[in-house]
Amino acid sequence: MSYSQDRLDKLVEKNRVHRDVYTNPEVFELEMERLWGRAWIYVGHESQVKQAGEFITTTIGTEPVVLSRDKSGQVHVLYNRCGHKGAKVAAQKCGKTSMFRCPYHGWSYHLDGKLNVVPHACGYDDTDFDMEDPQFSMQPVARMASHRGFVFASLAADGPNLKTFLGATIATIDNMCDRSPVGEVEVVGSSLPYMHDSNWKMFIENLNDAVHPMVAHASVGHSTRKVVDRLPEGAPTPREAEIISPFGGSYEFFDSLGCRTMPYGHSFMGGKGSIHSSYSEIPGYMESMVASYGQEKVDEILSQNRHNTTVYPSFTLKDAVQVARVCRPIAVDKTLVESWHFRLVGAPEEMLHRTITYSRLINSPASMVGPDDWDCYERMQDSLRSESAHWVDMRRFIGQEKSEGDVTVSPGTSDQASRNQYKAWNEYMTGEVS
Ligand code: FES
Ligand SMILES: [Fe+2]
Q: In a mutational test of the pocket of ligand 1, which residue from 80, 84, 118 has the highest number of ligand atoms less than 8 Å from its CB?
């Protein structure tokens, strides 16, 4: 690696970042090691491996991993690498099995990754080969932990525990679960994938960039508002219009929501209100919630309404919509964004229909909003090659942050979420993060 620490130390300034953070393949490799190799990264939800033997495959940074459930019900996050000569053991996105078996020479592994059978093992009789030696297993990652079924893992043995890492974002996960009458959510179906030909940070920075919707999403926002304005008096607003029209909100609206940032690069917009606050009620939902919790508690639960909680660097959640978007970096200029949809267990099925409708309208590659963002990321990735300037600005509303305990509040259209992400980025990349 020829990218020097000295160069790396100069990439982030308080109000701008050098283009190399988006374009340099060596910086990307260092990010995989120092940032994605240390932070808690979202792996999956326990409901995806409900039964013994069920597994899913994914990545932590660029490391292939498996999330599995063993016969005792224990959940594991294992490197998806054979202990023999290193072949990827599980190739499917998900499945159910009694054991993992490598397709190359047939070594097989228990669901917790321990080596089970080696074919024609007599060849090892007079060697120091030891079935119990962890180097011959599918090794567990250094740490895994879950909160209300959301499984995160860290490839680093040391660092903050998951609860400390999540900090104030934990209330977003809790709120999404509490919106179920039984306090539980489950993943429905597989993810809706969207491949972006751009650096992973462009997606993660965009989530709390509230100065772009009124430009990038102007056409769909205005068209939807026109549809609403032309509705006959008293006619209900179509669900699609309810979902899309806030994306055409004003600068003042987004400023008033506010942007909240916290340690480790996390952030969210709004809090008590967001672009999801004015959805119409779905028949039967309030009744089921009040029956479970009582009116006062339900009012408290539904009063929280955060937009795009970002658990830096991998996980983003909309509590009021029950959609998670997960960032999976592939190369310096290639990123997979996965949308995952959650059922509120015990709630009317129409709640799930709204969740899916939301994703279809906003997150899908065939939607009317996501491709606006995707186009902007690709334009950035392309034009950052320009020699005309080497820096990317992030100084909007700098100096106007206010502290509220562990949370910093800024006007919604400020660049504070980006500045906060780069503060964390710098700490990981320079090895200062605890
Ligand atoms: S590489 Fe897996 S059994 Fe040989
Ligand atoms: Fe957007």
A: 84
Q: What is the pLDDT of residues 191-236, one digit of tens each?
A: 999 999 999 999 999 999 999 999 999 999 888 988 889 999 889 8
Please give the distance, rounded to the nearest whole angstrom, from the Cα atom of residue 49 to the centre of ligand 1.
25
CA of 258 to the centre of ligand 2 (A): 16
Pocket test for ligand 1, best of 81, 88, 99, 105 (most atoms within 8 A of CB): 105
- Summarised one tens digit per residue, pLDDT across range 360-398 is 999 999 998 999 999 999 999 999 999 999 999 999 999
Q: Which residue has the higher pLDDT, 236 or 314?
A: 314
DSSP-derived secondary structure letter, 389: -
CB 194 within 8 Å of CB 370 = yes
Q: How far apart are CA 322 and CA 262, in angstroms?
A: 22
Measure 412 CA to ligand 2 centroid, in angstroms.
14
Would the CATH topology of 41-147 be identical to that of 169-429? no
CATH no. for 41-147: 2.102.10.10
In sequence order, which residues have a C-beta less than 8 Å from that of residue 24 and are 6 or more positions away?
3, 332
80-128, pLDDT tens digit by residue?
999 999 999 999 999 999 999 999 999 999 999 999 999 999 999 999 9
Residue nearest to atom 1 of ligand 1 (CA): 85
**Residue 177 and residue 151 in contact, taking contact as beta carbons nearer than 8 Å:** no
| Ligand 1 binding site (Cβ under 6 Å of any ligand atom) | 82, 84-85, 87, 102, 104-107
- Architecture, CATH, for domain 169-429: Alpha-Beta Complex (3.90)
Among 420, 345, 430, which residue's Cα sits nearest to residue 31?
430
Residues pairing with 392 in the sheet: 17
Q: What is the distance in A from the centroid of ligand 2 to the CA of 285?
A: 29
Domain ranges within the chain, ordered by starting residue: 41-147, 169-429
> What is the atom index within ligand 1 of the atom nearest the CA of 107?
3
What tens digit of pLDDT does each residue of 270-294 get?
888 766 777 888 999 999 999 999 9
